Amino acid sequence: MTPNAASSSGPSRRGFLTSTAAATAAVAVGSPLLAACGGGGQEGRKEGTTSGKEAAKILPAFVASSVVTPDIPAKNGSAVGFTRAIPTAELKTSVPKTPGSGGKLTIMSPFWGTPPKGDNPYYTAMNKAVGVDVTWQNQDGVTYDQKLGAVLASSEIPDVVVVPGWNLMGRIPSAINAKFADLGPYLSGDKVKDYPNLAAVPTEAWQRGIFGGRLRGIPMPAPYVTDIAPLYRKDLFAKKGYTVPGSPDEFLAWAKEATDAKSKLWACDDMKWTSFNIFGVLSGGDKALWWNLEGDKLVNRVETEQYLEALEWTRKLYAAGVVHPDAVQGKAGGDAGNRFTAGEVLVYNQNISDWWGKTAEQRTQNADFEMEAFDYFGPDGGDPTLWAVQPANIFTFVSNKASEQQVKDFLALCDFCAAPYGTKEFMLTAYGVEGTDYTVEKGLPVKTQQGVNEVNGAYDYTGNPAPYIAYPDLPEVTKGMVEWQQRMGAFTKKSSFFGLTVTEPARWSNLADDFEQLEDDVVRGRKKISDVQQAVSDWRSRGGDGLRDWYRKLLDDNGSAD
């Protein structure tokens, strides 16, 4: 059984398990360039982005929700926090009547695991509550990019399609422009007020839903504070008398002291992601965020000294023998969490949702298990310079062949699913049917095995409220996560293309694909920093400088979104 949990900090807002699977799959699989994908007219070929005055005409008005008051308000780009479960009698109503027309929609989305049967109690209850008969076409999340490419290249596509941001490669953005409906006539400006829960979605998330100059995507909002946290075993630190290091030099010195290979204990796992944040490297989650205007020059992150310094520091960790040998061999990043909970490593980096996931998992076996995220420090031990990640990275689209009523049913579904924590709509969407998908134990909703199998990877994607964290089974974790985001948000900057969905020219879209492997080779000692410098020189000559000019014109013509 799975304890109560809800968070919007990962690919599934409803819980940790889907989030981790999705993130792992995205990293492990990658997305090859599609061989073909229907493009069609001018919209299908449109490159670039939309911001400034043009975006202002398209974006929905923002109307904050007042249905439920969070226990911890948002600050510095953080999520809001809810530390307690709301009793059924206190749940609010955000959708007062059945919003759909009774029509039908077919939705294709990624799913990690075995998809549930289509007539299960959860799907049936959701269809009845929303008034839309949804048929789910759940596809294997590990190979979703391939399925997505094939479907979008065909002449027939489902009514609704979910597209993760990590699949926005090759010809997929052009296919989105050509094959999905413009939602502006239904949502732009005050029109969104017909859908109050969608009106409460932050503007910066909606900005990410603009594709090909039109508002096409329903975004899954996320905090813009980095979602990668350095997580450490607070219980073992206390047992051994360690204090959290406060600089790169202190970390290396501590790591050498803490490592005892004979006892199968290593200070850390691969720390490359943490290193990028310590040294102020531009965000790596979206290639548009690799660019930033510094003075009068547009600079890519691979060209910066910070990038080289981060790789060099990570290389020192490996060279000192303080990194777990499985990480040295490059074994799957998902295994790092298992090495951490097994007590083989004291520090690892992962999506901050692991803080709840690992704690909830381990507390059933070890009541003394305790972990936290430590605060980032700068290269000299002072304040860090952190860069914002995109405020949405999963999108849901409706076909441009859908009827007007189907579009309205789609938006009714999205508005229902975007209901905030503490509402009846949220409870149904997040937990399913009481007594079947979950039970209430000591005031907390606890998923049954049927709920674990069925209530995930579906309505997660068709509408989401403003970013929130709600783990009432572990309120101290909720508080810790939100306050960590608030502290880190105080040092977070937004780069030039923050909040924009940029479609790069196809001839350059795969230009930087080899850098991740090169980074991993360098930190493990298989390649040298000089190899990175040569790769950057090659990148420039093969199109990097041309891409820079293209991005600069984009910025000059449209301005930033912030």
UniProtKB/TrEMBL annotation:
Subcellular locations according to the entry: Cell envelope
Chief location: other
Record flagged with keyword Transport: yes
InterPro entries on file: Bact_solute-bd_prot1 (IPR050490), SBP (IPR006059), TAT_signal (IPR006311), TAT_signal_bac_arc (IPR019546)
Segment forming the signal sequence: none
UniProt keyword list: Signal, Transport
Pfam families: SBP_bac_8
Record flagged with keyword Protein transport: no
Protein family according to the UniProt entry: Belongs to the bacterial solute-binding protein 1 family.
Protein name: Extracellular solute-binding protein
